[in-house]
Amino acid sequence: MEWYDSLSKEVSYALRHAPWEYQLDMDEEGWVAVDQLLEGLRKKGKWTHLSVSDLQLMMERTKKKRFELQAGKIRAFYGHSIPMKIEKQAAVPPDLLYHGTARRFLESIWERGLLPGERQYVHLSQDVETARAVGKRHDAKPCILVIDAKRAWEEGVKFYPGNEDVWLTDYVAGRYIKGKEEK
Fold first, then answer.
1. pLDDT at residue 42 in the model
2. Would you state the pLDDT for residue 15?
3. d(Cα 142, Cα 135) in Å, to the nearest integer?
4. Residue 157 dihedral angles phi and psi, to the nearest 5°
5. Is the CATH number of domain 2-76 1.10.10.970?
6. How would DSSP label each residue in 84-136?
7. Domain residue spans of the chain
8. 30, HSE (Cβ side, Cα atoms, 13 Å)
9. What are the φ/ψ torsions at residue 58 (nearest 5 degrees)?
10. Residue 182, by phi and psi: left (phi above 0), alpha (psi -120 to 50) or beta?
11. Dihedral pair phi/psi, residue 88, rounded to 5°
């Protein structure tokens, strides 16, 4: 499993943060030819015998569902920090979404709303547990913000599915943050 986790992280880096390092031609929706990705990874030395079936097994065996593979192409679902904006298809979100954050960011969030930071989109979770796990990356006792996604959608805010646990949006104004979930 460790090999697949390591491969998943490398593929994430290539597709989300540095496609130019792997000489990848990415389209406006973030798709890259699988053969091109394999060639780019093989040139790095560690992945010299990598195959499409290795990518498929990685996607099946790793806990985090980060990628989509279809018609000879692959893309990362979310988390891009590349300069080119990855286009997403808007969809109706669940009524409530959640955002795990460090306590030190709360004042700024209440003043300015949720901003994407170094990413292209604000990442929201479909459940409290996922939001808490994300928030713990930055704070041992994170705050879980409750987002009124239904109201935001009704007022024109676009939401984009990331994967089965993650939703994306460009920005969440403070008026859509209902408060925080305490535990």
1. 93
2. 93
3. 5
4. -75, 130
5. yes
6. SPPP----PPPSEEEEEE-GGGHHHHHHH-B--TTSSSEEEESSHHHHHHHHT
7. 2-76, 96-181
8. 29
9. -60, -45
10. beta
11. -125, 155
CB count within 10 Å of CB 182 equals 6
pLDDT score at 181: 60
Look at residues 17, 33, 16, 14 and name the one whose alpha carbon lies nearest to residue 25.
33
Among residues 145, 133, 140, 143, which one has the least CA distance to residue 175?
A: 145
Q: Which residues does the chain have with pLDDT short of 70? A: 1, 180-183
Give me the architecture of the 96-181 domain, per CATH: Alpha-Beta Barrel (3.20)
Q: What DSSP assignment string belongs to 9-38? A: HHHHIIIII-GGGGT----TT--EEHHHHH
Two structure tokens written together for 22:
């792997």
What distance lies between CA 21 and its chain's CA centroid? 20
Token pair listed for 52: 């499409």
How is residue 15 written in tokens?
């597709």
pTM flag (> 0.70): no
Grouping H, G, I as helix, E, B as strand and the rest as coil, residue 180 is strand
Q: Compute the CA torsion angle 10, 16, 17, 19 (nearest 10 deg).
A: 80
